[in-house]
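Course exercise 7: structure representation. Students receive a sequence record and must write out the corresponding structure in token form. The form below is the worked example handed out in class, using Glycosyltransferase RgtA/B/C/D-like domain-containing protein (622 residues). Read each field label carefully; the graders check that inputs and outputs are placed in the correct fields and that the protein name is recorded exactly as given.

STUDENT ID: A-19
EXERCISE PROTEIN: Glycosyltransferase RgtA/B/C/D-like domain-containing protein
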Amino acid sequence: MSLPTPSNPPLPRFKTDWELALTAGLVLAAVAAGAYHCGYLATPVVDDAAISIAYGHSFFEGAGLRVTPHSQPVEGFSNPLWTLLLGLSQPLGLAPDTYAHSLGIILGLLALPLFALWGPVSARRRPRLEDVAAPWVAATSPIYMTWISSGMETGLQALLLATAGVLLLRELRTGRGASAGLALALLCLTRPEGLLYLLGAGLLWLTHRTLERRWTGRQALGIACWLLVLVGGWYAVRWAYFADLFPNTYYAKRFWKLDGSKYLKDYLHLSLPLVQLALAGAALGLMGGVASARSAALGALFLAAGGFFAWRSGDWMREWRFIAPLVPLLGVCMASGLSGVRARAAALTTRGERWRWPARIGVGAVGVAALWLGLPALREATLRAPRIKASPELPFQYVASHYVGVKRLAAELGQLRPLVAAPDLGGQAMVLREAELVDVAGLGDYAIAHHSGNPQALSDYLLSEGPPFLLDSHGPSHYLARLPGLMPNFRHIGGTEWQLIGLSATEDPRCPGGKSAALAPDREALTRLLEQDIRDGEAERGLKRWRCVLTYKPSSELPSPVERERLADLATERGEALEADEQRMPALRLYSLATLLDEGNAHRRRRTELLRAQVFPPPPGI
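STUDENT ANSWER:
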């Protein structure tokens, strides 16, 4: 064992402990500052978050993944894991908005210490002062704190990004373990862009193993198994239940004019100093040795993946919700750069006394640059907080308060399961739990999304399978006024709401032969009448009959699920025969009736809308 020389004395233990204690204190202070920031902003749960709450409640009520128990099974959400977590408020008996708000904050704040561990885990060292960059960048960001407080999945996404990074960096260094596959799989189930993060992680994995010339087949297989079971399993469930491999939101947003490039440019304009510092940090980290290069590369790849998604998709919401979970990664890149400089400085000092002061000057210069670039950016971000607080995103409670009146109106008309066509799905779904909802914005309705831009098909769908007792034509549903033949069936009742003409407490134009006559048959007689409608080729009469009894009769007086499925199969069989005989319109009506009788079965719905698109071809260019 060699003794220490006077020119190179050992580092006293108390100095290392002092830095560790200060680092831990600063990380905890960042978490506390983030909690205070959330409390100051007091962000309400937004309407889009209430969509996930509504789906989750339906699931735990035993109705499956439907926005309300009586609505059709449509994937009107893009965050399955978060939807299930929010749904737990139903069996737990917790206030759903308070639960969503609190859970998002807790998960978003838990992510901050994990982001600070990327550097230590990659290098197998103690946390150091530079590692506090990620927690503090996030804690002072009103964008990050707004969205983890909003009831959206941002907090969960940030936590899984942080966890995936810690596990992946550790497993790259050690060559053991496959837990990163679990974190990455859960990330894919949290947001659609999770697949892009998976691609970035895979690129780092392959590059690292190639440079090391070390292939850990068993470890890679373990990671792949997690992904296959969870992500592949969800795709199998998605096809079986929703009859599609993409969420319905994908089709609904096809024609939305969202400028993704402007969305990203506006954020870069606001946070350019922070982004510049992160880029410089990533470059310095890549040159600072294997450990800092790993964390810098992963941070940069995750930033690129999330930035690409934001650029491609854009968003109608303010404050960059798609970028919010990426904010801590800016700090990760800064920290990796400082770690890289520190590693290079340590290497220089080992060359002799004459390198000691240049190395220290280099570290100091990096620190000064960080302050020079970082403080103005953090100051600008802090100044945004009062503006965000004063003008929050659309709260779901505001939307819900409006639909209290709609619920009262339906009750006055004696409707047990009203059919409502309106946008702002979250708030209305939380109030109209007994209704069947047609999301005219398309996010939660298969037919509206797939026939977007095809007014003939949209009008036929709304009239033949309804019509709804109430239409709301504001915001994204303003196109309803341009649908042929639709609006003459409705009368204006105030604001942007329209009620079906002829509807009263005693009459409903959707009931064949009058409301009293249509509701008179008992369960068995009703089953026979529906079967007769199908066999006589009177599917339009059957659709009206079913809409009438579904609206006013309790479940105990409707045909049993077994009988309904039998009738749906019969209608499908008759429709197939008519379609083969080129009688597409009668076949379409039979397919529609089969779909509604079978509780909106997604595979029947898919077939129905494919035929509707043939009967009413979309305009050129759609």
